[in-house]
């Protein structure tokens, strides 16, 4: 069983803070970098709670992902901080975003492809019994 009290440590002061009581069974924890210290707490059943690590967890901040499979298996925040992705046990990815066309990689570049293979331009090699 998951413990619903999260231990929080202040690395600036090098001491433990009062544990944070959450309302979901925590399986995945990620900081949401667009906010100063907002924390996303995700359970495997699909419940999401967003809260501040130093504040009280509010049950009104609980959202639900509707997974196709019975469990959520992974969760992450995009590098551009514009999208949240949830992966379930059926292989589906659920995408949450606040814009119609989110950017996933703010530093993307054009793909550089390798040069075509030159094997077709080489002369054929005669394989015969004379080489033995």
From TrEMBL:
Entry-linked SUPFAM superfamilies: WD40 repeat-like (SSF50978)
Pfam families associated with the record: PAN2_N
PANTHER family: DEADENYLATION COMPLEX CATALYTIC SUBUNIT PAN2, PAN2-PAN3 DEADENYLATION COMPLEX CATALYTIC SUBUNIT PAN2
Location of the PAN2-PAN3 deadenylation complex catalytic subunit PAN2 N-terminal domain: 1-97
GO molecular function: poly(A)-specific ribonuclease activity
GO CC terms in record: P-body; PAN complex
GO biological process, any: nuclear-transcribed mRNA poly(A) tail shortening
Protein name: PAN2 poly specific ribonuclease subunit-like protein
């Amino acid at each position: 069983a998951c413990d619903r009290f999260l231990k929080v440590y202040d690395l600036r002061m090098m001491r433990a803070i009062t544990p944070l009581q959450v309302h979901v069974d925590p399986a995945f924890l990620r900081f949401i970098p667009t906010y100063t210290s907002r924390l996303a707490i995700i359970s495997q059943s699909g419940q999401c709670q967003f809260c501040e690590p130093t504040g009280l967890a509010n049950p009104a901040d609980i959202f639900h992902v509707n997974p196709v499979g019975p469990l959520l298996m992974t969760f992450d925040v995009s590098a551009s901080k514009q999208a949240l992705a949830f992966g379930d046990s059926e292989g589906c990815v659920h995408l949450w975003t606040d814009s119609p066309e989110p950017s996933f990689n703010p530093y993307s570049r054009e793909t550089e492809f390798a040069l075509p293979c030159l094997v077709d331009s080489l002369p054929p090699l005669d394989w015969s019994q004379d080489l033995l």
